[in-house]
Structure formats: structure tokens, C-alpha cells
Amino acid sequence: MRLIGLTGGIGMGKSTAAAAFRRARIPVFDADAEVHALQARGGAAVPAIADAFPGTVRDGAVDRAALRQAVLDHAAGQQAALARLEAIMHPLVHRAEQRFLGRARRAGRRLVVLDIPLLFETGGDRRVDCTLVVSAPRAVQLARLRRRRQLSREQLAAMLARQLPDQERRRRADIVVRTGLSRAHALRQLRRLITTLSRAPGTPDHRRRRLPPRRASGRPSARHTRGE
Q1: What percent of the chain has pLDDT over 70?
Q2: CA dist 19 to 68, 83, 190, Å?
Q3: The pairing of beta strand 28-30 with beta strand 61-62
Q4: Which of 129, 211, 120, 216 is nearest to 169 (CA)?
Q5: Percent of the chain with pLDDT over 90
Q6: What predicted TM-score, i.e. pTM, was given to this entire model?
């Protein structure tokens, strides 16, 4: 079974890419969606977050805006508060990911996608066969964020500071899909890419290795296409 690690900065078009894979009937593990479920009413992360960040749980669910503000304003410092939150969330998300992969293997899937916003930052690229980065110019990214999110300038800056710069993410990627021109252009790239990935031979789990670095484009190199 071949694992594709999908990532990209906030507002870069990762949701569009994930939806394209789902339309092609390729299973996608959505780490963000799992975080929401873990923090919802009855979620496994709720008790630990209530203890670590008093006042951020209301009616049995995490108030995400309150949690975000608590982390940013934490008296012990943002980095220490963020590390405490990640120590709660990362093991729970990882276990959910392992359950997803187990189901995919039992179903005989040849290709699955792990949609992980902080793929490189958390070392997740080491456990996939190929990394796919979605990228757009900074101006396009900020315009999308202003339309979609009710974030203060300070909150947005803190969120972006946690992520690798887009240039570094592209440098480390096996495949880059540009989403800055238009949605239609991005979807055309993604459809071609999904066709290529679906036809490539899988990598046995016991021989998992990274594909060679390649130029930034939505089209895999000849070596990638041959599955060498």
C-alpha cells in the first residue's frame, strides 16, 4: 500500500486537493477533522484539555476559539502552552491514523492519502512514500484567509509562525501542485497526478522508501511515473 503525505500552508488549497482524491475514491485521513472529533462533545481529548487549559471546555466540548486564545495568552509562554497541547493531541491523532491505515490494508487499498497540515514539522514525512505539497503565492494565501477565517492579525501571525515557510515546504516535497491561478487549473493538475499515482506500482510496507526529490510541478518525473 502506497502512502501519500498531503500538506501545505493554511489557505494553500489542501482541502481542494483532499476532495479531489476522495472523488477518485482514494481514502483520505484528515488529521484536522480528527482533531475536531477529539475535541467535540465526548471526544477523547476533552478531559485532558480541560485540565491543562481551564475555562476552554463548555458543554462537554472544547471551545476552539477559547483554546486558541488560551494558548496565545498562556502565562507560561506560547511555546510551552503549545507543546502541552500537542502532547495531548498528537498521540491521539496518531492512533486514529493507525486505525485508518489498518482498515485500508484490510480492504486491499493500493493508495491512501494522509492529509496532515504539519507533515514536515512533526516528522510525518518519514512515514510516507511520497510527499505532495499544495502551494500558492503569499498574496493569494492571505486573501483566502481573510475571506474564510475570523482571526485577528496576531492570531494569524502566530498560526503562520508554526508552519514551515512555503519555499522550504516546496523544497522538501516530492510533488508540488500550484493552486494560485484558479481552482480549475489546480483541479486539472490534481486529476493528472491522481491518474499517474493510481497507475504506479505500490511500495511494499517492509520496503518503504522515499521517492527521489524532483522539480516543483504537478507532473511527476519519468522516474516517479515508472515507480523506480
Answers
A1: 83
A2: 27, 30, 10
A3: unpaired
A4: 120
A5: 60
A6: 0.80
Confidence grade of residue 74 (pLDDT, cut at 50, 70, 90)? low
Mapped onto helix, strand or coil, the DSSP state of residue 165 is coil
Q: Does CATH place domain 2-27+109-220 in 3.40.50.300? A: yes
Strand partners, 58: 61
More confident residue, 172 or 161: 172
Grid look-up 497541547 returns 85
Question: Would you give the distance in Å from CA 1 to the centre of its chain?
Answer: 19
The yes-or-no verdict on residue 221 having pLDDT over 60 is no
Q: What are phi and psi of 107, to 5 degrees?
A: -85, -5
The domain segmentation of the chain, as residue ranges, is 2-27+109-220
Residue 116 near residue 159 (C-beta atoms within 8 A)? no
Given CA atoms 122, 83, 42, 95 in this order, what sign does their dihedral have? positive
